[in-house]
Design brief:
The structure is a homodimer.
Chain A: E1 8-12, H1 16-27, E2 31-35, H2 39-47, E3 53-55, H3 60-65, E4 68-71, H4 75-85, E5 94-97, H5 103-112, E6 118-119, E7 121-125, E8 145-149, H6 156-169, E9 173-176, H7 179-202, H8 215-221, H9 228-237, H10 239-261, H11 265-279
Parallel strand pairs in A: 1-2, 1-4, 2-3, 4-5, 5-6, 8-9
Antiparallel strand pairs in A: 7-8
């Protein structure tokens, strides 16, 4: 169910994701405001009808009037922001986020908030290799997955509201996972894939490779164009879980390596058949 | 320069690639015929104006009238075909191919051919996760790379003709590499990427992963849907070179692993910055 049109939504952090949330919601007629670091981002977003108004300061009036606040900040910046400004959030406000790691922030944020303010965490599985509100694109949510990440402290109503926000934004599949399950899933599906792409680009310094490449290399390394500040923080915030997933992957890679080295065609083909069968489930459904 | 419209072109092996060559050339007004295993493929291709005529037998008349023969077969099938039927090819015919490995076939094929028949090898860097002439799609060549792979035995005229065929098919960038250089390049750019995608899909059997995934995992594993018969042959035909490239990649992956394990944020960021800088060169140029 889409969220009630009367809800006032404040976005904190008007980057690519925060900007895309704002753009989608404003387009649909919601009242959307923003607090972000740069006045230029506020100006751009107001000029382009992405938000109704915004501030480059922590504007108490914008916080007070908001029914839902979406935090789209780096993990440690999110925690710092709540430590400094959490007391300004008024009771009955629901806060949510887009943070890529959960266990290391969700419990802490929930413990820092004033009574009556509920934090329900979420992870929109969408992104682009660009940044900034200038690249905001609400089309990125179409057919994408959205994960609601509640703890014992969350009420059923708020879990539902958070799913409704995902639905309003246009996500196709809304799932619910605990912070621990989320972090394991994301270590495999997202962080490990970025590790692989970065390693592959770092592995070879031959010149002119781009003249000979096909689409497989291009697709596989699309995400090797990476925001090093954000992703090093995400990797290190989920270190033990990520290392476990990297181990599992390396075992499979080593097995394939040994099959090639031993000329074991049957084992090679068996792995390829398993891979093909599993991959079929991942094709994006057409809407 | 596009090849002369009077040239008669025979495709041997009317699968996805052979069919796409035929479709593109017929559309442009060339006289295109085919020899392939299945009568159903011939029938489909004639009905859909992909070829003028074809045969499910080794039709000597089709071979005799051809000016250019394109072999689109598995490596060992290509070699067997030439051993059995190479004597039927008439002098002044130029033969070329689309085979994904070169060193293990090019010299042998050249030594098997009758006098006056020249084999100039080529590798179109295009493909799809489908097969068969029913999926033929000449759009796959647009903006793609095409590698001409000559040896000392090739004449300049034939090397040029082979590049002209690539240009006629619509490839954007035509390069020339020796068989050895080609195989090294392809081990890194194509075979290693397929090894990575297969290993990743084999590494985790958690259910419902597709409900939580984002585009990075989808893009990285697109090629995990793989023809196990063809790719196991390609891997094993290029074994030593592929193992070397797998070693290089594994070293980079291990370095990233150690950086995470040691909490070495600076090294992590350095690798990500290198990866980002290198990846920028691979963006497909818009035509």
């Amino acid at each position: 169910m889409k969220i009630d049109k009367s809800k006032k939504i404040l976005i904190v952090g008007l980057g690519l994701l925060g900007g895309s949330y704002a753009k989608s919601l404003t387009k649909q007629g919601y009242y959307v405001t923003a607090i972000t670091l740069e006045q230029a981002s506020v100006d751009y977003a107001v000029e382009h009808n992405i938000i109704t108004k915004g501030s480059a300061f922590v504007d108490e009036a914008l916080i007070a009037e908001a029914d839902i606040i979406v935090f789209a900040l780096y993990p440690h910046v999110f925690v710092e922001w709540i430590k400094e400004n959490g007391h300004l959030i008024t009771p009955k406000t629901v806060i949510t986020d887009v943070t890529g790691v959960k266990e290391c922030i969700v419990y802490e944020i929930q413990s820092l908030l004033p009574d009556g303010v509920e934090f329900i965490s979420a992870h929109p599985m969408a992104g682009r290799e660009t940044s900034g509100v200038e690249n905001a694109d609400d089309g990125m949510f179409k057919n994408a997955n959205y994960i609601v990440v509640p703890t014992e402290k969350n009420s059923l109503d708020t879990i539902e509201l958070c799913g409704d926000l995902g639905e309003t934004l246009g996500f196709r599949e809304i799932s619910v996972l605990s912070p621990e399950k989320h972090d394991q899933m994301i270590a495999f599906l997202s962080q490990l894939t970025h590790c692989i792409a970065v390693s592959l680009m770092c592995a070879c310094d031959a010149p002119d490779l781009e003249r000979y490449t096909g689409d497989s290399f291009r697709d596989l390394t699309r995400i090797a164009n990476i925001n090093d500040e954000m992703w090093s923080e995400l990797f290190l915030s989920n270190k033990q879980t990520l290392l476990q997933e990297m181990d599992k992957y390396r075992n499979a890679f080593d097995k394939l390596y040994d099959s090639i080295n031993n000329g074991n065609r049957e084992e090679l083909r068996r792995m390829m058949q398993l891979s093909t069968a599993r991959r079929k489930k991942f094709n994006k459904k057409k809407s």
